[in-house]
Design a protein that fits this description.
13 helices; 2 domains; MetI-like fold; mainly alpha
């Protein structure tokens, strides 16, 4: 009976938190599919209810910042910024988890400490560096920046995950003559799919939702990303909240789809990566 009561309480708390989180989303969604004058008195007021797609069409084909181009720009930046650091982080994490070398723990601690560096602290030297390298208004600069910021936490996450993998499987492959690199990409990586899926989901959402770095490095209107396009849709004299709400929903869809696709591995990867520090 005690277990039953605790289960009911846990479910009640979970549903309450979920409801609190989803209410703002419902408000934005209702504002995107209804004329603005119908939601002025509250989106929950259904005395007058007319569906409209003008907000989505207006955001997709916006004259100043069309979301069709901005979302494509975001994909151009987000996809390589997700997979490039994963490749580097996986190699580094495997070395930290399996090999012993001088100052290994000190170097790993330094990498972990890099996660604490806030974006605002380093944006000025980063801007000056990108200016000297000619990477302002260039997606390559933004991709390298996101990749470098993603490396520390990816290395920490994957190192913890690799540490709990059974070493016996790798030792058996080594006895059969397999090289370390062959063991890595034929045994370790396939066993690490949950961790890799978790990293893909987290890094993709992080880069897709980024506004600060994009604002600092991308000023060309044709190169602006999706998060930059939404503020541009705010007019100087008038704000069309239907278009703004619709644009917000469309920008939100992509990371939600990525999470749903990877949900099968997501929780397992997070739990396994947190078992051993």
């Amino acid at each position: 009976m005690k277990i039953r009561k605790s289960t009911i309480i846990a479910h009640a708390i979970a549903w309450s938190v979920s409801l609190i989180w989803i209410i703002p989303f419902l408000g934005v969604f209702m504002a995107s599919i209804r004329p603005f004058d119908e939601v002025l008195s509250g989106w929950w007021n259904f005395e007058s209810f007319h569906l409209t797609s003008q907000g989505y069409l207006g955001a997709w084909n916006h004259p100043t910042a069309p979301l069709s181009r901005a979302m494509l720009n975001s994909l151009i930046v987000t996809i390589p910024s997700t997979f490039l650091p994963i490749l580097v982080a996986a190699l580094a994490a495997y070395a930290f988890a399996r090999f012993k070398f001088p100052s290994r723990d000190l170097l790993f601690l330094l990498i972990v400490l890099l996660q604490t560096v806030p974006q605002q602290m380093v944006i000025i030297p980063i801007f000056n560096l990108m200016l000297r390298l000619g990477l302002l208004n260039n997606y390559l600069g933004l991709i390298l920046l996101h990749s470098s910021f993603g490396l520390p936490w990816m290395i920490l996450f994957l190192r913890n995950f690799f540490s709990v993998l059974p070493v016996e499987v790798e030792e058996a492959a080594r006895i059969d003559g397999a090289s370390y690199f062959k063991i890595f990409y034929k045994i370790v990586l396939p066993m690490s799919l949950p961790a890799l899926a978790s990293i893909i989901a987290l890094q993709f959402v992080w880069v897709w939702n980024d506004f600060f770095f994009a604002l600092a490095l991308i000023q060309n209107p044709r190169l602006k990303l999706a998060t930059q396009a939404i503020p541009v849709m705010i007019g100087r004299y008038e704000i069309n909240w239907t278009i703004i709400s619709a644009a917000s929903i469309m920008v939100m869809i992509i990371p939600v789809v990525v999470y749903v696709v990877l949900q099968r591995y997501y929780v397992r990867g997070l739990v396994a990566g947190a078992v051993k520090g």
